[in-house]
Amino acid sequence: MGKVEGLVCDRGLTLGHLIGVLHEFFTRLGLPKLRFKPAYNPYTEPSMEIFSYSEGLKKWMEVGNSGMFRPEMLRPMGLPEDVNVIAWGLSLERPTMILYGIDNIRDLFGHRVNLSLIKRNPICRLGL
Question: Which domain holds residue 112?
Fold first, then answer.
């Protein structure tokens, strides 16, 4: 399983900044249609689940989780009180499934993998 995580620390960061970063990130992956749903995470508040729409599968799929670190999580790090931290984490499998119209994660791993799909699609896409 592959995973991508990110965080940004700065003064004045808001939930709007987090949503903007996520829109830019997923648009560059080829997934411009996003929705956000409030969620609970022990280290962030507010927290959001991230969903992307799959045209091929005609449904919304969860692709990640995100939020703003709670102040009590930042104090032990010695950050100034006016510094906020936005963070996100996502699997690489779900965006891949959306981009290639795969509805069963087992089609990406193990004996069911369609090798012709791998051969037809480049590993690296330049210009993103």
Answer: 3-120
Domain of residue 67, CATH code: 3.30.930.10
pTM for the structure as a whole: 0.78
Please give the Cα distance from 80 to 78 (Å, whole number). Answer: 6
pLDDT in tens, 55-110: 888 889 888 999 999 999 888 988 898 999 999 998 878 777 777 777 777 777 77
Over residues 17-36, the pLDDT tens digits come to: 999 999 998 898 888 999 99
The answer to whether 74 and 95 are in contact (CB under 8 A) is no
97 token code pair: 């499934």
